[in-house]
């Protein structure tokens, strides 16, 4: 059984004094927005600064001045962004950022990044970049290009994306009947973010999502544990330096990506905590005109031993093919 | 401008005494077969043992007992295989092998490997494998599974696939007005296969294909030189040991794959000639039930420096997106 874990991601920042997304917009709006990409809201948690929705495909975070949505699987996230723009109006929006990772099963997606940004370009004048090589892991980023918005230097985001986790971790996380508490323990969330409010969900037959918030801080983890197409993403506005090192130990992925927005120490960050067993395959950095400095790095675990080939199911309905 | 260089490949072996593909089948048949996947024959060369057709998308080689076809771009090669099966009949066929590499632009392909082998499975009982990780370079191989065919141990094939060639090589190979002779010289074909009969073609605006034959031996090179999606494939039934080392020096790709059928010394082969600057990312070996032992290895050139992001064209018709 295969599932596309790789997320699309959108962040929209509004002209805050005009409207508070947290106080002035009710849940029905977010429910409708999420449904536009064929996802559903499963549950939510909130504090004074942030509301976090756990979705059937990933997560939605809402703050007073912005929202962030990540969706995986075969969702077409750009339709949710379009809904927001149509309902709220571009005159109240100061920044739209739309991002897409390379997928495991690009041929099974309902649209390409190019299709998505052609749709966005009907509403938003923007620029688009690719971070990483076309034949390897990469991230596409589209952002609104308007002189009125410049990101604050403390507006930081981190992504840690693990591919092909160890057989041991994959087996543990695909155990039948595994409970959320056991997964929290396996991921050592108590030690790592013990003071955050948590909301998590174990999917059937596999898969795990957790949203964590503390004031304006958020952290979200999505686990697609299936062997061959395993994928674990950690996204946060807290510095993932210590956390990513811990997750590398727990998951031992064959490959992982690091992405940062406005971590000006990204180069040293990557040097400092990554075990010497990993080798850097690709490194990209770019300062966008919206004042986000984006860093991307892909690492691999060199393989010496020869593995057997993967046997494929010809007759079955198999997204992997 | 982007072009999908990655090839699909099919080899079909017939029950030789019943028919000689080289002597009993005329060019109109091959023309029709090639048209089934929307490619055209550009030219051909032949000797007593082999006829090599240069195609608008890659190459077709015909021997007395088998043919081998490689097509790139958005061709749907499986339709050519289906045509052969329908025209010649499975009773005269002893082995069908169908292979597909991961594509740069999988979303732009008319079909997936899964679609292709579901079609083939209507005619051929077979097995399918994946060599290499799903999130990285990989090759899908489908082969007929029949007890009557066992490959001879001297029935060897080599593939050397270079991705992201050096800027210098890409610029040279995208020079306006570049002639075939200059490309042959750049690739040092005189030194490498000086005693082969050659047939080559320079595509407009870029791209180069060459077929080379000598007795039953063949070698074919296809060059997609465009920066970002550059791809150079070398396929041959002669040992690529020395040649691949030379091509690495000429092209300095950021990543390359080696694939062999029945090179029982594949592990040592890969150790011996590959510069220490390259790191092995994936290694797979498997003995198929048709008696081909297949080896696959993917290598990367570690990157220390940070590169700028690639700027994308939002409005343009851009296959890369």
* The CATH superfamily title of chain A: S-adenosylmethionine decarboxylase
Instruction: Quote the average pLDDT of chain A.
Output: 94
Identify the biggest protein-protein contact and residues per side. Answer: A-B, 64 and 64 residues
Helix content of chain A: 10-25%
CATH class of chain A: Alpha Beta
Radius of gyration of chain A (CA) equals 19 Å
- Major sheet attributes of chain A: 8 strands, antiparallel
What is the correct CATH architecture of chain A?
Answer: 4-Layer Sandwich
Q: What is this structure's SSE topology?
A:
The structure is a homodimer of 321-residue chains.
Chain A: E1 8-14, H1 27-35, E2 41-46, E3 50-55, E4 58-63, E5 66-71, H2 78-88, E6 93-101, H3 113-120, E7 126-131, E8 139-144, E9 157-163, H4 167-173, H5 180-186, H6 189-193, E10 197-202, E11 208-214, E12 217-224, E13 231-236, H7 241-251, E14 255-261, H8 266-273, E15 279-287, E16 293-300, E17 310-312
Antiparallel strand pairs in A: 1-5, 1-6, 2-3, 3-4, 4-5, 6-8, 7-8, 9-13, 9-14, 10-11, 11-12, 12-13, 14-16, 15-16
Helix pairs in contact in A: 7-8
Describe the structure.
- Two copies of one chain form a homodimer.
- With 321 residues, the first copy, chain A, is α+β, with helices and mostly antiparallel strands.
- Chain A has a single domain, classed as S-adenosylmethionine decarboxylase (4-Layer Sandwich).
- Chain A is built from eight helices and 17 strands.
- In chain A, the strands form two sheets. An eight-stranded antiparallel sheet of chain A has the order 2-3-4-5-1-6-8-7, with helices on one face.
- In chain A, helix 7 packs parallel to helix 8.
- The longest helix of chain A has 11 residues.
- The termini of chain A are close together.
- The model of chain A has no long low-confidence stretch (mean pLDDT 94).
- Chains A and B meet through helix 3, strand 7, strand 8, strand 15 and strand 16 of A and helix 3, strand 7, strand 8, strand 15 and strand 16 of B.
- Chains A, B: One of its GO terms (biological process) is spermidine biosynthetic process.
């Amino acid at each position: 059984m295969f599932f596309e874990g790789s997320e699309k991601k959108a962040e929209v920042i509004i002209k805050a004094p005009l409207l508070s997304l947290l106080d002035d917009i009710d849940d029905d709006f977010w429910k409708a927005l999420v449904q536009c990409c064929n996802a559903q809201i499963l549950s939510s948690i909130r504090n004074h600064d942030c509301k976090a929705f756990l979705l059937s495909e990933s997560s939605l975070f809402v703050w007073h001045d912005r929202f962030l949505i990540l969706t995986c699987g075969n969702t077409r996230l750009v339709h949710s962004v379009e809904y927001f723009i149509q309902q709220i109006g571009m005159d109240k929006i100061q920044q739209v950022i739309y991002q897409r990772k390379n997928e495991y099963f690009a041929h099974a997606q309902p649209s390409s990044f190019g299709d998505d940004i052609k749709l966005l370009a009907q509403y938003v004048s923007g620029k688009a970049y690719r971070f990483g090589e076309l034949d390897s892991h990469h991230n596409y980023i589209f952002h609104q290009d308007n002189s009125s918005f410049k990101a604050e230097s403390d507006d930081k985001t981190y992504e840690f994306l693990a591919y092909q986790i160890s057989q041991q971790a994959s087996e543990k996380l695909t155990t039948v009947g595994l409970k959320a508490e056991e997964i929290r323990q396996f991921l050592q969330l108590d030690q790592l973010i013990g003071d955050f409010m948590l909301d998590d969900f174990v999917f059937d037959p596999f898969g795990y999502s957790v949203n964590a918030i503390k004031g304006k801080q958020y952290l979200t983890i999505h686990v697609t544990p299936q062997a061959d197409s395993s994928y674990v993403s950690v996204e946060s506005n807290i510095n993932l330096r210590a956390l990513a090192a811990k997750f590398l130990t727990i998951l031992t992925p064959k490959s992982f990506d690091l992405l940062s927005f406005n971590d000006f120490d990204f180069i040293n960050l990557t040097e400092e905590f990554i075990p010497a067993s990993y080798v850097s395959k690709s490194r990209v950095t770019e300062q966008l005109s919206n004042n986000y400095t984006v860093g991307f790095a892909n690492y691999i675990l060199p393989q010496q031993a020869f593995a057997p080939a993967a046997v494929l199911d010809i007759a079955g309905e198999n997204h992997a093919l």
